[in-house]
Design brief:
Two copies of one chain form a homodimer. Helices cover 47% and strands 17% of the residues of chain A. With 343 residues, chain A is an alpha/beta fold. The N and C termini of chain A lie far apart (55 Å). Chains A, B: One of its GO terms (molecular function) is phosphate:acyl-[acyl carrier protein] acyltransferase activity.
Chain lengths: 343, 343
């Protein structure tokens, strides 16, 4: 095996474990030449999934004797599960055997373990979770999505620096537009942390466009929207809820009678395009930013298509040297901040 | 004029002022016998709107020399606009001339003025804003939606009591299901305020169902979802953003070619039902709960159909004695809390 690029997959994570992770891994490899994957977890369970499938030496298994439960306390997982598939996958990144890892496991445990094993980049107080959502003009990235429930202004500022650099690195945008989520476009609204973060962002050299509101996320006029983890998680879940409600209403409506079934047939190409465009699987894969290594969180309920997408994001972040680039930007902004503070 | 029920309308509020408020008022009256409306604002501008329209003595005008701007600081509006249409409409409720008022004006100013003029009910620390959103099984009520950006556990608890009683009063549900918005169903997640509010709610006699997440709002399994104002405002605006994104995608898709136009025609009844069901105008009208009087906030961009809906909500809350009923419930829960605290 001499692949220049290796990704470790937590094969036991998520609602479906190896039955999703292994097929997704093989799908991914069938489209790539220069990537190797390490399947981390219960060897027997992984072999069972591999046995009837075509695969080559780019797939290897790394046995791990434990698995982290989806509802396990992060602190307990960290203390008691030193040979979990999640932990070993992250260890492989730490050791340089893999350049990234992907897990559909317990978000809290993944963040705690990644932070403990890999450590944060210099100047980053807290790692954040970022993902893309569809918008009118493509997609918008949101962070933080749940790693940090109480954030100070400086945390929000760091999220902005990291999110902006991720977009620059991965999408090649020179100056991504960064917005700060607030509850009014007027400067009079919002809580203290948000107002202070606004001050910090207004005087830095990011392409900061100011406050944005919840509905602006989906207009696509900004590339990155910054918020604390509680708010971000609510925004993301609420969006999923609305999309599901509307989608179900439509499909139920078209199935109501033979007349609506016929009109549904006529509208099928459009409804299918609708489903494809807003398919959450296309957006599966959130990055844990601010760590000394690449860690991608897949949705726990991801299927093989969705999980494959998360592997693709890991690959892209390796190619784009995301952690190194973020480290540089954080250093520049810290330096700039120090100079400005010194007058 | 001897109508048993009078509602004061801030005719100058919102993006369109009298050109929306006056027609909405007349539409509303054409369907009612026992309600009178007072149009508060610039007399000339209101007369201009009334002049070609049919109306009877149930419409009266109350001149007010000022108007509150949509971006005016609430504290300034309160200090400098003592003869604004908004202030006078609220004064009419205070004086008992009207039993409720409706305004599409600046939310912050409306809340500040209403709180100053009407005062909060005994035992209520902070009034909250509540509205309904569509869900799988009808609708779900959310509060707070922006009045309170930083909330303690006791504030969230009071919101739950008020929201629950509103549903009981207005929708006749004996024990509405109350959920507390959090970012994980497991008890390990969430911020301190939310965890403490969960403790308070778990031991009170509301029909508290526990934590819910953003996507649960639209499932309709709970009747009331409680959250702080920052989170609530983001949840609401984000939902609007997603609904607009999906709606625009659909209508644009159906207009793409003559083929899609034909399939759009076939699907028209369903698309129209979709639009009707999720028409935000049907949900226009948020209540300011916890005050000694009924104040309804209409969306600033409301058209006549939407504004009429807000008047209808005001009428319903008068019929149901909402403030009195909330006062009673708050008293019971305070008493119960005191007893429990005393062991």
């Amino acid at each position: 095996m001499n692949a220049p690029l290796t990704i470790a997959l937590d094969a036991m994570g998520g609602d479906f474990g190896p039955s999703v992770v292994v097929p997704a891994a093989l799908d991914f490899l069938s489209k790539r030449r220069d990537v190797a994957l390490i399947l981390v977890g219960n060897e027997e369970a992984i072999r069972e999934q591999l046995k009837d499938a075509q695969h080559d030496e780019r797939v290897t298994i790394r046995h791990a004797s434990q698995a982290v439960a989806m509802d396990e306390l992060p602190s307990k997982a960290l203390r008691n599960k030193k040979d979990s598939s999640m932990r070993v996958a992250i260890d492989l990144v730490k050791e340089g055997v893999a350049q990234a890892c992907v897990s559909a496991g317990n978000t809290g445990a993944l963040m705690a373990t990644a932070r403990f094993v890999l450590k944060t980049l210099p100047g980053v107080d807290r790692p954040a979770i970022i993902t893309a959502v569809p918008s009118q003009h493509g997609s918008t990235h949101l962070l933080d999505l749940g790693a940090n429930v109480d954030c100070s202004a400086i945390h929000l500022f760091q999220f902005a620096v990291m999110g902006s650099e991720l977009i620059t690195a991965v999408e090649g945008l020179a100056a991504p537009k960064v917005g700060l989520l607030n509850i009014g476009e007027e400067e009079i609204k919002g809580n203290e942390q948000v107002k202070q973060a606004h001050e910090l962002l207004s005087t830095c050299d990011l392409n900061y466009v100011g406050y944005v509101e919840g509905d602006d996320i989906y207009l696509g006029d900004v590339d990155v929207v910054v918020m604390d983890g509680f708010v971000g998680n609510v925004a993301l879940k609420t969006s999923e809820g609305v999309a599901k409600l509307l989608g179900r209403f439509l499909s139920r409506s078209f199935k109501q009678s033979w007349l609506t079934r016929i009109s549904g047939l006529a509208a099928l190409p459009i409804l299918n395009r609708f489903r494809r465009t807003f398919d959450p699987r296309r957006y599966n894969g959130a990055s844990l930013l601010g760590l000394r290594g690449i860690v991608i969180k897949s949705h726990g309920g991801a299927d093989r298509i969705a999980f494959e997408n998360a592997i693709r994001i890991a690959e892209k972040e390796i190619h784009c040297n995301v952690p190194e680039r973020i480290a540089q930007q954080v250093a520049i902004h810290l330096d700039d901040g120090r100079k400005r503070a010194a007058g």
